[in-house]
């Protein structure tokens, strides 16, 4: 088949079984890998969990895609969807914080930067929080902290394991001290979860930085990460200026942190669900039916 014929076939209706599937709106869109330059059909990329088939580069995905990759089909039960942020400080820099919130909510369809709920993974019940980097860089404000804390407490009450998928630029400066308080609040809830001898797993994705790294992202029983994820507290430039020395090129990558004992294991996204199910069973989690929260 010639390259021209292959492109033409991609644009024509395709058959699934004996039923012809007409091209959907936007069919024929392509994605170029920023790592290796491979151009792939967007649908094929998504079928591979948005991981480049050429080099393994992990494209950023949103919270709904992440939940679909982790949870059993139609098992996710969202919690505290109604919680929405306010502007307690009347904060304004180049633009008002209230305007930034409205724009992020309109662009993402979310009230704030995290989705929380209960789900099944291969029949095993657990709590799941997924930070969404599209919402103000996944920054942690009062609502993000409150939703994660409530989820941790719900998991403690129900004796469920917990997974938090981290993707954040850190604490949300527009809420000042109120955002920093969330670090201690979530950490306290996680300590009570640990005292109940329940499993907590953070998954560090690209990027995980700032106050999130300084709190719940590093408090897991096992700390998991995606390949080549940027993980750190302060930025490279700040650290280099403070230490007055050049840092390694791979500094603050998941691989570097694993070599130095800060990350337990790196799990490719295409293998994450099966790995997670194995870890849950290894730590004594059993299959169950979730009742409505």
Throw out a few tags for this protein.
seven-stranded mixed sheet, disordered N terminus, alpha/beta, 293 residues, 2 domains, 2-enoyl-CoA Hydratase, Chain A, domain 1, two-stranded antiparallel ribbon, 10 helices, single chain
Could you please describe the fold and organization of this structure?
There is one protein chain. The N terminus is likely disordered. Strands 5-6-7-8-9-10-11 form a seven-stranded mixed sheet, sandwiched between helices. It has a two-stranded antiparallel ribbon with strand order 1-2. It is built from ten helices and eleven strands. Helix 5 runs parallel beside helix 6. The chain has two domains: 60 residues, no CATH class; 212 residues, 2-enoyl-CoA Hydratase, Chain A, domain 1 (Alpha-Beta Complex). 35% of the residues lie in helices and 17% in strands. The protein has 293 residues and is an alpha/beta fold.
């Amino acid at each position: 088949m010639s390259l021209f014929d292959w492109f033409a076939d991609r644009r024509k209706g395709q058959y699934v079984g004996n039923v012809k599937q007409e091209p959907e709106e936007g069919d024929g869109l392509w994605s170029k890998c920023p790592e290796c330059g491979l151009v792939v059909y967007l649908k094929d990329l998504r079928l591979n969990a948005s991981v480049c088939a050429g080099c393994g580069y992990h494209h950023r995905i949103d919270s709904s895609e992440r939940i679909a990759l982790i949870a059993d089909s139609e098992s996710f039960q969202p919690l505290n969807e109604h919680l929405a942020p306010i502007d307690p400080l009347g904060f304004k820099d180049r633009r008002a914080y209230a305007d930034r919130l409205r724009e992020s909510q309109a662009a993402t369809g979310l009230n704030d930067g995290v989705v929380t709920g209960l789900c099944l993974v291969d029949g095993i019940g657990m709590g799941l929080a997924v930070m969404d980097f599209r919402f103000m860089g996944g920054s942690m404000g009062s609502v993000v902290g409150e939703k994660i804390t409530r989820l941790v407490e719900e998991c403690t009450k129900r004796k469920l394991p917990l997974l938090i998928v981290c993707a954040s630029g850190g604490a949300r400066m527009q809420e000042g001290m109120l955002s920093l308080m969330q670090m201690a609040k979530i950490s306290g809830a996680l300590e009570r979860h640990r005292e109940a001898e329940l499993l907590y797993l953070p998954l560090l994705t690209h990027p995980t930085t700032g106050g999130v790294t300084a709190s719940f992202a590093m408090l897991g029983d096992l700390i998991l990460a995606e390949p080549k994820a940027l993980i750190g507290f302060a930025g490279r430039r700040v650290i280099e200026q403070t230490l007055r020395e050049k840092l390694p090129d791979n500094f603050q990558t998941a691989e570097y942190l694993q070599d130095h004992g800060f990350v337990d294991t790196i799990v490719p996204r295409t293998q994450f669900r099966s790995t997670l199910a194995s870890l849950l069973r290894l730590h004594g989690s059993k299959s169950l039916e979730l009742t409505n929260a």
